[in-house]
Amino acid sequence: MLGKELNLAAIAAGWAVAFAPLISADCSAQVNIPRDARPGESHLANIRQLTATGTQAEAYFSADGKLITFQSTRGDHPCDLQFVMKPDGTDMRRVSPNAGKTTCGWFLPGAKSLFFGSTHAAGAACPTRPDPAKGYTWGLDPFDIYTANIDGSGIKRITNFGVYTAEGVLSPDGKRIVFTSLKDGDLDIYTMNVDGTDIRRLTNTPGYDGGPWWSPDGTQIIYRANHPTEEKDLKDYRDLLALRLVRPSKVELWVMNADGSGQRQVTHLGGANFGPSWTPDGKAIIFASNYQNPRGGNFDLFIVSLDGTGLKQITNDEGFDGFPMFSPDGKKIIWGSQRNAAKSDDVNLFIADWRP
Q: Pick from 122, 121, 110, 120: which is nearest to 66 by CA?
C-alpha cells in the first residue's frame, strides 16, 4: 500500500461496465524510454521508464519474468486499479473491476491468473480519503483478496472479512499467501493456502505489522513493523485504528521464520522504512526509506544485510523511489519513482539492469 490518497468520486458506469475485463483507451500511453542514472546510482544500468501518466505502484514480476502486475490511477477512475503488462511496457491491460480501489497484486503459478486486494464489494466509488486533520495517515480501506485471470475474467473472492486485508505475496513454492489483515482487531500478518483456507496468524504484538515478503527459499518473511511501547503512543495507534487509519511515519524492518517464530528487528534507522523485498541470493533486503530526513518525502532505495549491517544507498533522486523487486533471474530491478514526472504527484515505473 503506497498511502497515496485521491479525491472521492462516484463511478458513473453501471456494474456491467464496471466489471468489463479490459480497458484500452486508458492504456494507450505506453513508453519504454531510456533514462540516465542519477549520480551515485552505480548499481543501475540501462534504466528505462515504462509508464508516463498517472500514479503507479507495487510492480511485481511473474515467476517466469515475462509479465508484470501493478496498480495504477489513470484515466477516468480516481483511484488505483490493477493492471498487467510485459516488462517493456507493452500489452498493458486492466484485470480488476473498474470499481473501488485495488492494491498489492501477485501472479499465481503459471502466470495465467493473479490475486489482489480490492474494495469493489464495498461500493463502486473510491474509498473516502483520510481526514488531513489527523496528520499524515494511511486509510485502512475495506480490501479483501480476489483472484482473476489475466484477461480480467473469472473474478473470485478468497477472503471475506470486510476489513483491511491486503499486502499479499505468494510463497516461492506457490502454495501459500502471506498477507496483512485487520480481521482480529489489530494489523497483523497471516498466511493461508491460495484458495483462502488454513489461515494462520504469525504476529500478535500490539501495533502495525505489514508488508510481508517471503525469502527466495520460503523459510523467512521480511516485514515492516511499529510496536508502540509508550502508553500514549499505543493509545494514539488504537484511536486511529478505530477510525480505520494508521500513521506510517515510524516503521522499521523485521524478519521472522515462515511459521512466525524468531521475530527480530533488522533496522534501527528511524523514519519510515517500508516496501521490503529480498536480493536474489536471499542474504540481504532492499527497501525504501526516508531516514535521512524523516519529515520529508524523499524516499530512496537501500540494501541492508539481515543483521542490520552494510547499509548501502541504491537510488539518489530528490523525489520518491520505492517498491523495488528483482526479476526472477536477478538481472533486472523494477521500482516506482517520481523522477522525470510530468506532474508533481505522478509516480512512474522504471526498470534497469542490475549491477551487483
A: 110
Polymer length of the chain:
356
* Domains of the chain in sequence order: 15-354 (2.120.10.30)
DSSP-assigned letters across all residues of 210-267: EEEEE-TTSSEEEEEEE---SHHHHHHHHHHHHTTEE--SSBEEEEEETTS-S-EE--
Strand partners, 182: none
Q: Shortest CA distance to 96 belongs to which of 166, 147, 58, 168?
A: 147
The pairs formed by 31-35 with CB atoms below 8 angstroms and a separation of 24 or more are 31/89, 32/88, 32/89, 32/90, 35/339, 35/340, 35/350
Does the pLDDT of residue 21 top 90, yes or no?
no
Q: What is the mean pLDDT of the chain?
A: 91
d(CA 58, CA 336): 7
- Pair 140, 241: CB distance under 8 Å: yes
Per DSSP, 37 falls in state P
- Residue 154 CA to residue 282 CA, distance in Å, equals 34
- The amino acid at residue 172 is P
pTM of the model: 0.91
